[in-house]
Write a structure and sequence with these properties.
It is built from five helices and eleven strands, in the order H-H-E-E-E-E-H-E-E-H-E-E-E-E-H-E. It is of the alpha+beta class.
Length: about 210
């Protein structure tokens, strides 16, 4: 019984520390509003105190959708994506930086999904993921709109061999089929990549 309470208290303290770290990171970008991030992605350039991020437009899935991604994210060749990440086929795309710290993945599945089913599907998927991945911690779930699409977003933490990773998972309906995508990066990079990922999702455009 003592072990149980010790583990429980450690878990609560751990979540508190992570939340404080996230709030501290987000506070560093207080001068940047959501509109600033959105405008920078749309205009193709964001100037931060310590770096400049430039974006290119990528037409994906047979030019059905387009994303504006930072130039530091490079497309992973299909053969490499298949062997290293299990992603293959024309309906999947993978991008990553040279240091392999940041990943963007997109998959247009064959699963039928109407637009009004996006939010219920997100709720069901999160329950399934939490039951399969006990180390995953949900940080936030929201619904966004991008070019008339209803987009479900879930932000979560997951365990890495040397720390924690942060994932921004998103889903919507494209031509009545489920479209899944995600941005993944180390927790230490959340100050930049969490608001930037959300802005790139909001900048999603369809054909």
């Amino acid at each position: 019984m003592t072990t149980y309470w010790d583990e429980l208290l450690l878990d609560i303290d751990h979540k508190r520390q992570i939340q404080e770290q996230m709030e501290e990171s987000n506070g560093k970008n207080d001068s940047f509003s959501q509109e600033d991030w959105d405008r920078g992605v749309q205009e193709g350039r964001i100037e931060l105190p310590d770096q400049v991020i430039e974006f290119d437009e990528h037409r994906l899935l047979g030019e059905r959708v387009s994303f504006r991604l930072p130039r530091l994210l490079l497309p992973v060749p299909r053969g490499l994506a298949a062997t290293e990440y299990g992603m293959s086929g024309n309906d999947q795309h993978l991008f990553r930086d040279k240091g392999r710290q940041v990943l963007f993945g997109l998959k247009w599945t064959t699963q039928a999904l109407a637009m009004e089913q996006v939010e219920p599907y997100q709720d069901a998927l999160l329950r399934q993921l939490q039951s399969l991945k006990s180390d995953m911690q949900i940080m936030e779930t929201i619904m966004l709109e991008a070019d008339g699409l209803q987009v479900g977003c879930c932000e979560s933490l997951f365990q890495l061999p040397t720390g924690y990773g942060y994932q921004v998972l998103f889903m919507t309906s494209l031509e009545e089929r489920l479209l899944l995508g995600s941005f993944q990066f180390p927790l230490e990079g959340a100050e930049l990549w969490q608001p930037l990922s959300a802005a790139m999702i909001r900048a999603l455009r369809r054909k």
